[in-house]
Amino acid sequence: RDTVLHSVTLFVAVLVLAASVRVDSQSFLPIDCDDVYRHDNTSSSGVYIIYPGGPTTPLHVYCDMDTNGGRWTVFQRRMDGTENFYRPWKHYKTGFGNVAGEYWLGLENIFLLTMRKKNELQVDMEDWAGGKASAQYSSFSIDSENAGYRLHFGSFTGGAAGEDYRVALGRLALKVKRWMDG
């Protein structure tokens, strides 16, 4: 598993419906890409605005409406190395990059996305030689900053990356803890 990945995309999809943010009878503020799809019956992937933190906190995200049935809120996308991912802790907390290209959505935003609904995790990877692998997990959530942004994964449900990818996700959790500990 020494293959260097040039493309990693992490997705979160909603498994259980919950109420979207409604400001009044006329306004609809989607919390995630599943809400975008259900409200607009949108079938094209692209950048959309969601409101996981409520009506005063719009967030631009990339919605993948194609992979495994779509409705995926993409929280990390790396494709060609145009975005520097060697960054200080505060950037991983708040997010960085351009959602139309390479980006990290931010731990706080991912927490807001996963706190209201049960989510599924899809990880897609591609190496420089064009080899592709994926892994799917039955659930995914992240705790608040006060709880150390602890990552929670459900059972492995499929994908060519296999169950071993959980080890890499565990390393990510340890890295987050080390950053927070200083």
UniProtKB/TrEMBL annotation:
Its main location: secreted. CDD domains: FReD. The lineage of its organism: Eukaryota, Metazoa, Chordata, Craniata, Vertebrata. Keywords: Disulfide bond, Glycoprotein, Secreted, Signal. Residues 1-25 form the signal peptide. Residues 24-182 form the Fibrinogen C-terminal domain. Gene3D superfamilies: Gamma Fibrinogen, chain A, domain 1. This is Si:zfos-2330d3.7. It comes from Cyclopterus lumpus. Pfam families: Fibrinogen_C. The keyword Glycoprotein applies. It is found in: Secreted. One of its GO terms (molecular function) is protein-macromolecule adaptor activity. InterPro entries: FIB_ANG-like (IPR037579), Fibrinogen-like_C (IPR036056), Fibrinogen_a/b/g_C_1 (IPR014716), Fibrinogen_a/b/g_C_dom (IPR002181). One of its GO terms (biological process) is platelet aggregation. GO terms for cellular component: fibrinogen complex. It comes from the Eukaryota. The keyword Repeat does not apply. Coiled coil: none annotated.
